[in-house]
Amino acid sequence: xxxxxxQKHIINIIKEPAVRYRKAYEGISKSDFLAIVATxxxxxxxxxxLLPVSKRTLExxxxxxxxxxxxxxxxxxxxxxxxxxxxxxxxxxxFQAWLETDxxxxxxxxxxxxxxxxxxxxxxKDLLGRIEHGVYS
Length: 137
Fold this sequence. Notes:
Layout: H1 3-15, H2 17-26, H3 30-40, H4 44-48, H5 55-60, H6 69-89, H7 92-99, H8 118-132
Helix pairs in contact: 1-2, 2-6, 3-6, 6-7, 6-8
């Protein structure tokens, strides 16, 4: 698979809810995981800190071996949040800068601090929705 085809495949997984649901349920391959990490601009160490599994465990998985469903679900949830953030802010770098900003809506904490569980990801998504619709956040 060419780099372009791989990128198109990853974007399809992230943006299509039915595909994302199926992949979260079945598990994603390690190669898909690494491609997703690349789309976020994060490194493997930073991304793995957001997951319910250690970086070492992820490193042991072979490229086409599937990652467990719960971990795949979290990976795809983070990837979908990044896609939404890029849409709201217009570019990945602006979204990443926002993730590192202390926000009053989060009790002066950074959105990045809330990305390690589903409830926190939902909070961030809700804030992005408010920003998208021009509601003070």
